[in-house]
Amino acid sequence: MSNSLGKLFTITSFGESHGKLIGIIIDGCPAGLPITRQDIQKELDKRKPGENPASTTRREGDKAEVLAGIFNGHTTGAPICLAVWNKDIDSAEYVKGRFLPRPGHADYTSYIKYGGFGDYRGGGRFSGRITAGFVMAGAIARKLLKLIKIEVIAHTVEIGGIVARYNDFNEIRQNIASNPLRCADAEAARKMTAAIEEAKKQGDSLGGIIEGTVLGLPAGLGEPVFDSLDAELSKALFAIPAVKGVEFGSGFQVAREKGSQNNDPFVIENDKLVTSSNNAGGILGGISNGMPLVVRIAVKPTASITKSQQTVNIKEMTAAKLETRGRHDICIVPRAAVVVESMIAITLCDFALRAGLIPKVIR
Amino acid sequence: MSNSLGKLFTITSFGESHGKLIGIIIDGCPAGLPITRQDIQKELDKRKPGENPASTTRREGDKAEVLAGIFNGHTTGAPICLAVWNKDIDSAEYVKGRFLPRPGHADYTSYIKYGGFGDYRGGGRFSGRITAGFVMAGAIARKLLKLIKIEVIAHTVEIGGIVARYNDFNEIRQNIASNPLRCADAEAARKMTAAIEEAKKQGDSLGGIIEGTVLGLPAGLGEPVFDSLDAELSKALFAIPAVKGVEFGSGFQVAREKGSQNNDPFVIENDKLVTSSNNAGGILGGISNGMPLVVRIAVKPTASITKSQQTVNIKEMTAAKLETRGRHDICIVPRAAVVVESMIAITLCDFALRAGLIPKVIR
Amino acid sequence: MSNSLGKLFTITSFGESHGKLIGIIIDGCPAGLPITRQDIQKELDKRKPGENPASTTRREGDKAEVLAGIFNGHTTGAPICLAVWNKDIDSAEYVKGRFLPRPGHADYTSYIKYGGFGDYRGGGRFSGRITAGFVMAGAIARKLLKLIKIEVIAHTVEIGGIVARYNDFNEIRQNIASNPLRCADAEAARKMTAAIEEAKKQGDSLGGIIEGTVLGLPAGLGEPVFDSLDAELSKALFAIPAVKGVEFGSGFQVAREKGSQNNDPFVIENDKLVTSSNNAGGILGGISNGMPLVVRIAVKPTASITKSQQTVNIKEMTAAKLETRGRHDICIVPRAAVVVESMIAITLCDFALRAGLIPKVIR
Amino acid sequence: MSNSLGKLFTITSFGESHGKLIGIIIDGCPAGLPITRQDIQKELDKRKPGENPASTTRREGDKAEVLAGIFNGHTTGAPICLAVWNKDIDSAEYVKGRFLPRPGHADYTSYIKYGGFGDYRGGGRFSGRITAGFVMAGAIARKLLKLIKIEVIAHTVEIGGIVARYNDFNEIRQNIASNPLRCADAEAARKMTAAIEEAKKQGDSLGGIIEGTVLGLPAGLGEPVFDSLDAELSKALFAIPAVKGVEFGSGFQVAREKGSQNNDPFVIENDKLVTSSNNAGGILGGISNGMPLVVRIAVKPTASITKSQQTVNIKEMTAAKLETRGRHDICIVPRAAVVVESMIAITLCDFALRAGLIPKVIR
């Protein structure tokens, strides 16, 4: 069941990059949620390679199809199966390089684990394309969370060493929509764009950091000790290819702080208990404390670059040079942010169902 | 089942800080593993508050007891139940402060989630004390891993902004044993000690970073896409109270790097395929690549400090001052490193069993 | 995850009777198993309504399609997705009778549970058609079991009170193939056929009993206490619509026996320990003992009959008469036997993987 | 995790017959349930060997102890750990017969599976004694079900071929309490007692059938397709040692019935939809239909008998005679009925939590 995630709201991923389709099954969605193919398509489109220089030239005009579980415009309570059919596939490059594992990719580990039987075309199951399924499931999760007024936003906060500055959620919400890099800081976005263009010229790629924020999360969500909010979120986020780190609130910065600085004092505001700072990122003891949940995700530079790289022919066990052509994103951070939103939404749906916040039938 | 972790090697945590006992059940351990109470005690002792200034003055002379699953000096294949009975308990402070949630602690979130029915004494289920159970389970996991020559080391790499420098694994292995801070850099350890003493004087606490390293891990371990090596490790590590971040290999540093820098080239060394750098931290596509696994964990400064703090009386909903006395660690990083070793070992045992690396009966 | 079954060899069912498709995902199948679409089709065809009077007139010329997880004629280790697309659908009867729950069917309970949002056409998720997915997954499971020489046979032992007599496995194996009722006793099969024809004339239906037998099962399979061989098999078998009872070995007959009769004596035969009788049905303490596993499954008479029945209009809450036309099996026992074989095979694959009997990569 | 059962209300069993203790952990119990040690003891006492001739002479004056999860007379939301410490142990017989597997027992299969490392004393993990843990967990489950007015009754309906007759639930409820055999039919109970005494004289044992009934179960409980009410109940019931069959409603009798007889017509009674018969045993499509749930469980005659039996010395692989002395129940049916009640209650709690029928905090 390593391709399934979640306890009460469970997604099961299937399909390969150059196979027939990329699919996802959502099991445990309450019946009666109004949803259309267009709702799912809209979310999927956000993940589409944009007009910005960061993206692949592969034309992923992905069209979401509902295969099961939605009837008369509503979820039925049965497993929902969503798919996008693969098109515009060119596997020639992959067939040629079958025994030349690409540095930074799963080619080698997959080869070892599956004895060479894996579908290596386009990275097979290890392609970023499988996240199309996550985003379709995320569309449903976000609809459910909307019912209980929980909003998930993910945005680019760093690319190639350029750090975005921003003030509040309204600013973030507005700017990321208008911005192909999903960055709340327009000035930083310009610099990031320049850095991406420069990397492209060099045949190189860039990494970055995404920040996910959840507003409207009530206090009391999360199941300690092992199914805590942070544990389950981190697990879900590490399923996104290229993620190398996850931190909550102050994150790694805590190593440089004292308890008196890092502890968030409890205060009363408008008759409600809140904390006057949010170093905890909205989580105490694995349970939400009612403050905005803040998580940051490190995304490595795209492993596929056109610069020549050193590898090994694993069939002949000889040194080899790799010159990848293919079509790749220079920096996947902006598109990954859409996936981050989905994974957070999916995880929170699971917790909301465990806490009984969402009814089994939506009327 | 939020108190259980693992699929084939499953631990179930129970017990409270000031209750009768702290316990752990290990289900799925192969039969025939030779193990004694002393083996478990030895591991548990590593977690004991040391002679260093960082630790609590609570005398946790914890004695491991085998309640089930070990017979004639071997595991039986049945669930193993291990416990430490609580002694030297002083709950007075907690009873007094029952309605004054301590900043940075789970008091408030637990109160909301469990409607005030939780055992609040000593933090109850949210105390670091529950990690005594993790360490006992870790003792068994480490024994199993030893059979297949996998070694797990965790050491302090940063405390209060002081960063340790070190060269190789032999150095780490040697130094951390001789050092109450489990730090591979003796010079840094001295500075950390001074920083801890200074924080103690101020009634404050310090955070830090732990690095976990796994040697001898064969390529091919890990179950993508959701049960990947990094996903499951991060989930397990976030169960340790005070952990705020987890990163693998280059971690958050990837945001400042190019693909050509971050990709680890494949080369042949002694007829074996290896990578010439290890920015991936031993994991590609969620599967081990045969290089040392490297994970770093951010540990926040102990939430309990003696400095006066602002809080709210949650019964009367009025502002309040908190002056914690109690007995606390100034910096839990060194002790948490022992728990990190355990959680890594436990997680790897699960993967080793899933991969069929450990037989069902050890003869 | 109520639509998923199994721990290491996991199937996930999706699709509805009159929706686009019936599908199944198999997660955890080792890589390298040679398998073709035809292998799956062959198994699926066994479930096809036959030329015998027992079957529906719905022409289920189901064509298995591989959507993911099989590449170059082998499993890849990735999730396998198999589907049959629905054709020859006539939902008119169902739309008309939407608020008239059919006695013996899940119409009413589904309506209550899913608030009327369920896909009621053709029984939706509650149709026997979903077992087409089980059988496709069973095709893969049976291929895997064949590698370790485990054979699963299920045959009709009773229909409409007529009991089959048979002597040994060779007889069963031969006869059930030649016989549209999958009955080892040709004489009984003739009487069953007559009884079915009589029931058909009366607009009625018949129930029966299926016996599943597993040959070649090694001793030591099964995971007590809750994941025992009998517990998991019974759980899997109750997923087949219309199953009302499951018994192992002597089954309910034990209520009339003494320990001295029911205990199977241990003896040595050909230098091997066996039992001289098999009242245990091959299971002791939830673990296989090396003898043939024997399980019997009670299958109720098809709930759909053309005889007039009493029901309630659940929208108007008034008494109503139900005259089902539709196209139904008079007795599903022979077709259910194919599904029984599949569910047993799927469950045993899971246990074989848990026991490490099947390698992770088949070479 | 084969020693854990349930998804949201999870029990984990540990301990051995002649080890230190028999224990159970209940994870997922809502906080705030008022419960005392005495509540648990009362339930445990029902399982105690009675004054009737059916029971063992081992004096199981089991005393329930709360080790964790209950505080100030209420559940805390944390895992509850309950234990009984083993006393009055005599392992001599078992040590002597270590290599002589008892027919009908798990001695042989356990030996094979665990390579001889299992705790064989008193049957170890395979002893009926582990059901003491089930009954303690059942005490909590029953308390929870009482909150939502669900009542579980299990009673003896057959022993040694003698069948009990009874009319309604009130009769059952009254009679089983007054009757050491938990039989609703006083006349049948007398005959059963005579049969048990006769079997005792012969050094033999008797099997029987238990009927479990659930009153007050609302329609809509159960999670199809694999986690259906019948599937999960059967799985839970097969965890009870000696169970060889489980059937719902008409059960195996369906093989002799026509659809027109077996279908339960829907009718309106007191403005409520009910069925005029209950052949379905309260379950349609794996979901409760609001009628009483009826399940029957076949319990084999106690495997331990004093009559001489044929076995094999598995160390020397030679034929051997077994003369068991020990202290055993002649017929475990009446005591098993208490365990049946517990397993049903535990399973229904899980479903009630999944359906959101029980709040997360009980106030």
What features would you describe in this structure?
The structure is a homotetramer of 363-residue chains. Chain A is of the alpha+beta class. Chain A has a single domain, classed as Chorismate synthase, AroC fold (4-Layer Sandwich), CATH 3.60.150.10. Helices cover 28% and strands 23% of the residues of chain A. The first copy, chain A, has nine helices and 18 strands. The first copy, chain A, has helices at 37-46, 92-96, 107-113, 131-147, 169-178, 186-201, 229-237, 259-262, 333-354; strands at 4-5, 10-15, 21-27, 64-68, 70-71, 74-75, 80-85, 151-159, 162-163, 208-215, 243-248, 266-269, 272-275, 283-284, 287-288, 293-299, 309-313, 318-322. In chain A, the strands form six sheets. A five-stranded antiparallel beta sheet of chain A has the order 1-2-3-7-4, with helices on one face. A five-stranded antiparallel beta sheet of chain A has the order 9-8-10-16-11. A two-stranded antiparallel sheet of chain A has the order 5-6. Chain A is globular, with a radius of gyration of 21 Å. The model of chain A has no long low-confidence stretch (mean pLDDT 94). Chains in contact: A-B, A-C, A-D, B-C, B-D, C-D. The interface between B and D is large, with 46 and 46 residues. Strand 11 (243-248) of chain A pairs antiparallel with strand 11 of chain B, so a sheet runs across the interface.
Keywords:
homotetramer, alpha+beta, Chorismate synthase, AroC fold, 5-stranded antiparallel beta sheet, 18 strands
